[in-house]
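Box 3.1. Reading complex inputs
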Amino acid sequence: MDVSSLTLNRLSLYLRCLRTLQEEGTERISSQQLAERFDLSAPLIRKDLAQFGEFGIRGIGYEVDHLIDRLHSALGLDQQHPLLVVGMGRLGTALARYLGFNDATFRVVAVLDNDAEKVGKEVGDLTIRHTDELEEIVREYGVELGVLTVPAEAAQPMYDALVDAGVQAVLNFAPVSLQLRPGLPSKSVDFRIHLEELVYFLLAKED
Amino acid sequence: MDVSSLTLNRLSLYLRCLRTLQEEGTERISSQQLAERFDLSAPLIRKDLAQFGEFGIRGIGYEVDHLIDRLHSALGLDQQHPLLVVGMGRLGTALARYLGFNDATFRVVAVLDNDAEKVGKEVGDLTIRHTDELEEIVREYGVELGVLTVPAEAAQPMYDALVDAGVQAVLNFAPVSLQLRPGLPSKSVDFRIHLEELVYFLLAKED
């Protein structure tokens, strides 16, 4: 299926909206209701969904469960993506055991650290391996995604090592701006942003 | 200063863009350059910034450092906001020590758990206190923000306890949909979303 990058972003937005509806127990929804509830455009929703053969039934709408399944497959979430976590500090250990990283779509297949003291210890079902084995591990498990939870000063060399080892995308939790490899999807997570947003909300409330 | 909630959102976006420029060593930038670089609208940027007395100089633009300071103060980030973290598991411990939660704007003033085994242990400079003391702690430190890192089943009762104790906004890391108190800013962090985005990027690349 040939879906543009812009459409992918919108499909992922629809998916999040539909999951909210599913959690609330909603079974069917029209494009108009989706649009009103989540501040989207109904004609655009219909056009996007029609692109991969989904047409709402007039007066009934779309079936939420079915549509979620279709979006999962359109977005590549119906396949399992093996990932590894580098940096077995507190955050890395927490993320390696995090359920959202261990389900039908994602699976932590290896955990690594460069500290010989940590290598060989268990994190959940996995044994910590040395970062020297990175390339071998990526090949062995067909690792697609690398999660970086190393200290700031180690982040750039470890990012480069991940990319050189063949990882296809990187999620970085280290609090630094990385020099990114062109064309390789990467994303940095900054928890501070979330706190800042809450402060803005508080300000907006006071107005 | 009376700034609408919509403008606040845009100001926070400008702030993030300006921080990127600051990290790269850029000293001055025009609204036009800001617009082109970050896919924003130049007239809207000028209008938003003029609202709090900032006018770029023709042919020179805005001073990045100065503008960041002004945005910090407009967004309430020039004051320190005391926060507490409830749930001293791996993630909670990591977040309590996270530098982004301990700077000029944010400060972890208390860490709590309901497990008597953990109470009294040290996390960085702080001693873990029992969740029974929540109300007292919020009053003692004037806590504004609560960070929730408890297991899924404990999240709703602990969210309610935070709100009842007088916390003004909640950042939730527990993987559940909370029944939120109306009018109280809350935000849930789902790490999985970031991995999903990377998968979409990979798909988009293959197209």
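In summary: The two ends of chain A are 48 Å apart (CA to CA).
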